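Review this chain:
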Amino acid sequence: MEIEKSKTPKEPMILSSRKKWFWVWVMITFFNPLIGLVCSIAVYREELYKKEGRVLIASAIIWMFIIFLASSWLSQHGYIYQKGYLPQSIMLPIVK
């Protein structure tokens, strides 16, 4: 009885549903833009997914820029914690 050697496929990887994976990548980008950018670059490098990769890369960069602007605006107006700054109402008194 002869054991067959496993052959590596020469064909490119084909995912079952392009739309399903595209929306998974969009959600990854939405929740974490930096990881989304890394995944987008990986998608872009696949021959069949160049168009989706470009869209994802652009959306990741735009989303990072929006988050940066929103967080800086919120920290300037005191809505989120700013490093080295605590409002007087939160500071505890010094007890000796």
Notes: The helical segments are 18-31, 33-44, 50-76. The chain has a mean pLDDT of 78. The radius of gyration is 23 Å. The CA atoms of residues 62 and 89 lie 36 Å apart.
